[in-house]
Structure formats: structure tokens, C-alpha cells
Design brief:
There is one protein chain. The chain has 172 residues and is mainly α. It folds into two domains: 1-96; 104-167. The chain is 76% helix and 0% strand. The protein contains six helices and no strands. Helix 2 runs antiparallel to helix 3 and helix 5 (105-129) packs antiparallel against helix 6. The radius of gyration is 21 Å and the shape is extended. The protein starts with a helix and ends in an 8-residue tail after the last helix.
């Protein structure tokens, strides 16, 4: 029976490697975002002189939005791999990646939530800049969704702070 238990435990532990194709898939999505970013950037260069300031700002916000999403993907890929699969064998000092290995699942959730709030804020700002073309109902829902993200992020941060400072009950 002990051998069977050991076999099951090893299989469960090895199952973490099933995440690797998902992380690779996210890296491929990152490639798509880079291509899309440069497509948008070239479009801005091609039309910048004919754009008014508001449209140029909207175009810039689109690039910022894509960059935030891409950064979010990198955080998830690297931190997820490190937290759930295996430590990355890279020279942290040489690559100047101070946060590598320091993002546990709690801090990763807060960083992800904060990024989602920033992305949502950009979408909300874009909506306000096109306020004449957006229905009040849609605008209301965008605000409600954004505020939901903000409140959720604040609650996650509060819970993380409480548990990090011993506020959680300790199991013996």
C-alpha cells in the first residue's frame, strides 16, 4: 500500500508540469500582443499628423493598455512557473530582475488585480473621451465594473496585509 501511495503522490506532484504548455501558450499570446502593438504604433505614425489631440491620446492609451496586458502576461508566466512548476535557473543579478522569486501567490494576486484596475481605468478614460459616442447605460456599467475591480483589489490587499501580520488564526 505504501508503494501505491508513493506512486500517487509522485504523480500528483509531477502533474504541475501540465502547466508548462499553458505558460508557453501565454508566451505565444505575448508574441501576438507585441505584433499588435507594432501594428498600432505604425498606424499612429502613419496618421499622427492628421489626428487631433484627443485621438492621438486615445491611440497612445491603446499602446499603454497593450503594454500593461503584456506586462501582466509576463508576471503570470514567470511567477506562475516559479511558484508552481520549478525555479528558473537564471542569473537574477545579471538580468536585474529583483522581483524574481519574490512573488508568492498572494502578492501575485495583488499585482494582477492592480494591473487589471489600471487596464480598466484606461478603458474607462477612453470611454469618457468618447462620451458622445457611448450610451449612458454602457458608461454606467463601465464605472460599476471599474469600481468593482478597485474594491476587489483593496480587499485582496487588506486580506494579504492581515494574514502577513499574523492576523490570521494559526494552525497548530
Amino acid at each position: 500500500m505504501h508503494k501505491l501511495e508513493k506512486l500517487v503522490e509522485n504523480a500528483i506532484f509531477a502533474s504541475r508540469w501540465l502547466l508548462v504548455p499553458m505558460f508557453i501558450g501565454l508566451a505565444l499570446v505575448l508574441v501576438i500582443y507585441v505584433v499588435k502593438f507594432f501594428q498600432d504604433l505604425f498606424h499612429i505614425f502613419a496618421t499622427a499628423l492628421s489626428m487631433d489631440d484627443a485621438n492621438l491620446l486615445l491611440a497612445a492609451l491603446t499602446l499603454v493598455d497593450a503594454t500593461l496586458v503584456a506586462s501582466l502576461l509576463v508576471m503570470v508566466i514567470i511567477s506562475g512557473y516559479e511558484n508552481f512548476v520549478s525555479r528558473l535557473d537564471v542569473d537574477v543579478g545579471r538580468h536585474n530582475i529583483a522581483w524574481l522569486g519574490k512573488l508568492d501567490h498572494g502578492s501575485l494576486k495583488i499585482k494582477l488585480s492592480s494591473s487589471i484596475v489600471a487596464i480598466s481605468a484606461i478603458h474607462l478614460l477612453k470611454a469618457f473621451m468618447n462620451i458622445n459616442q457611448i450610451s449612458q447605460e454602457k458608461l454606467m456599467w463601465l464605472v460599476i465594473i471599474h469600481l468593482t475591480f478597485v474594491v476587489s483589489t483593496l480587499l485582496l490587499a487588506l486580506i494579504d496585509r492581515i494574514t502577513a501580520h499574523g492576523g490570521a488564526t494559526k494552525q497548530s
